[in-house]
Amino acid sequence: MLKSPKDLENRYVNDLRRFAFGQSQVFNFKGVFVPIGLATIFLSLVGVFVASSHISFGEDWLIVVVAAVVGGYMALNIGANDVANNMGPSVGGKVLTVFGAVMIAAVCESAGALLAGGDVVKTVSKGIISPGDDLGVVAFRNLMLSALLAAALWINLATIMSAPVSTTHAIVGGVLGAGIAAAGVGLVNWPTMGKIAANWVISPVLGAALAAIFLLFIKLRILLVEDKLTAAQRWVPILMAIMAAAFGAYMSMKGLKKIWRASPSEVLLVSAIIFILTYLISRPYIQKRIKRMEDDKKAIYSLFDAPLIMGAALLSFAHGANDVANAVGPLAAIVSTINNESGIASSVTIPLWVMAVGAFGIAFGLGLFGPKLISVVGEKITRLNSPRAFCVALSAAITVLIATTLGLPVSSTHIAVGAVFGVGFLREFMENPNKRKLKPGHKLNATAEEAFNSSRVRSGRRLVRRSFVLSIMAAWVITVPASALLAACLYNFLLVL
């Protein structure tokens, strides 16, 4: 029996729907299970490698294998969550693609970890606890392992929820909770905890304020003036020089501390030299580019692309150099207790293989799971362009410099995300239309058309997605207590085993 054209059309549409559904399922499989499978292979290789060297670890080889796998798992989560802070603004500003950002960050993160990663973890417990003679070696190992696993699990959960959190705060909370479970509250260094708690407020507020100030300057001095090209020719080289000097100081103080420990006077001298050289080089470069430009905002935006990419790469290098200790510091502490008659050391040297686990783990985690958080930081909070992303990167570097100089513990996550907030809320303040002043007896939205237009105006004022702001801030607040509680539970579980 011949089917009608209508029946054939319905069948065709249903076939297309089934095909589309099949495609979506394949995509979901590739997007979820393939990265998980590759991550499992990486952790398996770490375990096999360490197990093959069991002779050097003696009877304690099993705890080293377990700690190495957990350290690799922590490194994967740091790459998936924390690196987005460096590359997110570049992606959001349409300067880099997600793939390009992942490639640059992976190379710079692993290079920073391997070349400039701190070879010594001072106070392996992050200064949160003070392990003494009353804390045995076995208890110390369980403490470090519990802290590391708790931090990794919490960061993994935060990544699933699309919430960028501080990996440093996660490991601090893990050490805090496991330390209290092991020896009570007397083991905790509460003044250090007070500084970390203060950081929850200082880091994002300072990052937001600096980013907003720089963006306001760029708008008032370059983007909103009548002769934009002349203004850009004057101010863009200065801004590029400030950024280069800031990153020069940042790298001298933190990123290259393993290779070169610079004194404050040396840092100032390096920054001044970099500022002058960058200005002298960038000024003729900007002049040459401006000659071929039209006098509009979008043309000016492109002037910030190159320094933004360079800044993101340097931030990734410094992040790998400094934050690799969050992944492998507790692992190195456990390794240091193997065949060590003196017991627990206050500082330990990180072996090369341990550093490699952290470096490659961060790179793999970034490549496999990082694009999700990169999209959140760069695109989901507020709309970014090159100047806005430039301000975010510049404020992050300067905020870290200020905090380091003052001896304040800071979170690169809180700074970068806070800077994005600052840029977004400044846009709301400057671009929103004035609110209607209602007089007594005034009837708001007298017609349906007026009500529709009014709702559009009100929605246009919200240039920052509040849902992301609230969820991210909530994740920040509960990171330390959540990881602490989880670490305490894991420590007690290990005691039962």
Given the C-alpha coordinates, what overall shape results? elongated
Structure class: mainly alpha
Distance between the termini: 71 Å
| Whole-number total of structural domains | 1
Commentary on this structure:
The chain has one domain (39-432, 464-496). The radius of gyration is 26 Å and the shape is elongated. With 497 residues, it is mainly α. The protein is 77% helix and 1% strand. Mean pLDDT is 78; it is low at 23-29, 435-445 and 455-460. The chain has a two-stranded antiparallel ribbon with strand order 1-2. The chain is built from 17 helices and 2 strands.
Summarize the model shown:
By secondary structure, the protein is an all-alpha fold. Helix content is 77%, strand content 1%. The relative contact order is 0.18.
Q: How would you describe this structure in keywords?
A:
497 residues, mainly alpha, two-stranded antiparallel sheet, 17 helices, 77% helix, 1% strand, elongated
